[in-house]
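Hi support team,

I'm opening this ticket because the web form for multi-chain structure prediction keeps timing out on my end. I have pasted the exact lines I submitted so you can reproduce it. The total is 229 residues across two entries, so I didn't expect it to be a heavy job. Is there a limit I'm missing, or should I split the entries? Thanks in advance, R.K.
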Amino acid sequence: QSVLTQPPSVSGAPGQRVTISCNGSNSNIGAGYDVHWYQHLPRAAPKVLIYSDTNRPSEVPDRFSGSKSGSSATLAITGLQATDEADYYCQSYDRSLSDWVFGGGTKLTVL
Amino acid sequence: QLQLVQSGGEVKEPGASVKVSCKASGFIFSNFAFSWVRQAPGHGLEWVGWVSAVNGQTDYAQKFRDRVMMTTDTSTTTAYMVLKSLRSDDTAVYYCARNGLTNGVDVWGQGSTVTVSS
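Hello R.K., no limit was hit. The queue was backed up. Here is the completed structure from your submission:
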């Protein structure tokens, strides 16, 4: 059972918009700790997609965006492409555990 | 370019130890800490801990605190992770990554497969 809760799967047609939620608590996201999002493509190393809640590395397309409110964070992907099929993970710090924590991951399928 | 290159796959028997290395290049190694993250088959990402190349400080996840040791060698710009008393559920791909974000990582190695089997 992950400390950060993500839906196991989401799907959308090419060109559509999808969102992936990451629900935490007052000991992690709600305490103000940064949330990072990673994309994990098959047979590749993960890469950072969104860092510190809303920031996007320069090489990441602006189709990807992040937001945070209260104890939850959301990753939004617009203009879905087949190459977006991957597993997506949120990650933060939990002060009760004194550990970095990952969400369970969400598998994105492009229909 | 920024790069982390990890050692190859290992097969170990239950109860043994494994040492995984992670050689960094393209940036100032001694300015950063390095995390280890694993992914067991059919499971998500799991943080194991981090080690600082600045001062050798470590922070291990509670789950691994009695079985893991992480070190760095600034002369060879290499980070190491040793996991002891291996069990079958330690079978996983182990990634090293650079702590370039606040409580997060920004550069990942290619992963090292550790298989624990008798």
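A quick check on our side: Chain B has no helices and eleven strands. Let us know if the file doesn't open in your viewer.
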